[in-house]
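Explain this fold:

***
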Amino acid sequence: MKKSLLLILVLFCTKTVCQKKENDLEVKIISNVKWWAGVLIEGHKMPLKDGYEAQLYGTSYFNQLQPLLLSNSGELVWSEEPFRFRVNKEKILFDESYAPLEYKKAGKNLREAYLYASENFFPPSGKMPPELFFSVPQYNTWIELTYNQNQKDILEYARAIIDTGMPPGILMIDDNWQEDYGKWNFHQGRFPNPKAMMKELKELGFKVMLWVCPFVSADSDVYRNLEKKRVFMLDETEKPAMVRWWNGVSAVLDLTNPESEIWFKGVLNNLMNEFGVDGFKLDAGDGRFYKGINSLKKVNPNTHTELFAKIGLSYPYNEYRATWKMGGQPLVQRLHDKSHDWEDLKKLIPHMLLEGIMGYPFSCPDMIGGGQFTSFLDDAPIDQELVVRSTQVHALMPMMQFSVAPWRILDKRHFNAVLSAVNLRSKFKEIILTLAKKSSINGEPIVRSMEYVFPHEGYVDITDQFMLGNNILVTPYLSKGEGSRDVILPKGKWKSDTGKLYVGGKKITIRVPLTRLPYFVNINSN
């Protein structure tokens, strides 16, 4: 191991940038060089700063994770296994006792480093999720119904979407539609006629996905039958390990055992065949649930997260919140649940920009207005303006997803502003679809940072505006209260959403009323 590791370092390191010291790989931080790491939930903390540290083993950080670091001078560090690192003012120090690491100077800028990593470590599959994910909104029943998923209210939610002038799209029925965890049948008390429900949803124009997870409740007949087949993770006594997660204590499927995958896919396939379900929101699977327990094949906890993510490759209509090392694959990746507040709204852009350069272009920036259900409990105040601005951020992202019903919580003025953003997306639908198709082949992000598109021009720390492809600059308003915002325009000629022409290479200030999502098109391009 040590000889092969040393060979790797000789091949990939230069004396001035990368050094091997005992059990550490050290990467020198050159002046003005910035680094990004594949911890998606912490995209707002990047580029990396002095004092940052991360341990990738046995976690997903509640979101997507990628064992990759990139710099805007074309450098990268990659490992096939989880590792630990920390940053100081002079160096990034990697603990190689966890995993062998590869360092490479792959180019001169962030884009060249990313494209090298994409091609060599997680090449694009040539496939993308179905076009519907990108062309129309998604709707998730979680915030409206939480654990009271039921046929009557789901149908009312779907009908209201149509009645209020919003387009049908993908409808995700969230947790607790089922009898129990692992017992993936529609609950008979809450869903008296699921086939009739599915028929009406399809007639309204929706594709339908169901929430599932890899857990099985221990006090069910399903558990007793599966225990005999030995398809669960085990504790030190060789009994099914009982894992504590956010909904209680359950056994967890061991997907290193082929019998476990066969059973799980069989259940999912039955839901599709019997009820016409189109796909699944595959939740949980976080690496932390697999620490300290045993599987048929000995792998690290992160690999269990990876195996659960690979289930989704069999189902084009899929969504994940937690994945490991699944860059380049046609999986829908949603950001971690955000709260209903302005600070979390400001995190959407840097998080989505990081998604792109970690190989996860087919991403959704959480749920509009926030996906953290505790923000909407009881009489929690609703900030109508925040819902509008959140919709606008989503509008020109790869995907947009509603959960809290805007027609229920907004007055006419604010709801019309939401409809305006939804309609704007339809104008850009073909552009977004074209970028998604290209991404499935070349790996390029759909939304891109200023530094990615305009390297070394002083835009490295800009995280409140983004590029849709290379030629459309999107500058949402991210503060409470209508007013003005500054926009950094790159060199060139730009035409704004209002039709005004600007010469770039400078900062401008624009007014942003409630109904406006500012964007600028580079008129020097096609």
